[in-house]
Amino acid sequence: MVAGVLQLLGGFLKLALLAGAVLYFGLVLTSYFANGPQHRPQVNWHDKAHSAELLAVWLGVGALALAVRVGTPIYGMLSEASADVGEWFLARTTREASSEK
């Protein structure tokens, strides 16, 4: 009985963590698209919880901006490689089809 309750609580905890991560990612994306990657948070030392939230979102925006900056050239290289593989495959397929005739 106790093990079942602990499993249920563990499942609810995992669900709550997932919901929090989705909410945080939504806040980061919204802040990134609304304010851009150069957005600076305004810290109010009298409202520490809200300031901590803004700093966490600011760090997420910085990480997202870095991922976009690094990921764009990598995506370009991968799409070029994919196009080369596609051209190779089509050339090989047409060569094999013409040799079978």
Describe the protein:
There is one protein chain. By secondary structure, this protein is mainly alpha-helical. It has helices at 2-35, 48-100. Helix 1 packs across helix 2 (48-100). It starts with a helix and ends with a helix.
Strand content: under 5%
| Helix content estimate | over 70%
Our count of helices gives 2
Structural class computed from helices and strand pairing: mainly alpha
Radius of gyration in whole Å, from Cα? 24 Å
Task: Tell me the domain tally.
Answer: 1
Task: Extract low-pLDDT stretches.
Answer: none
Main traits of this protein?
101 residues, single chain, 2 helices, mainly alpha
Can you summarize this structure?
This protein is mainly alpha-helical and 101 residues long. The chain contains two helices and no strands.
Secondary structure layout plus pairing:
Elements: H1 2-35, H2 48-100
Helix pairs in contact: 1-2
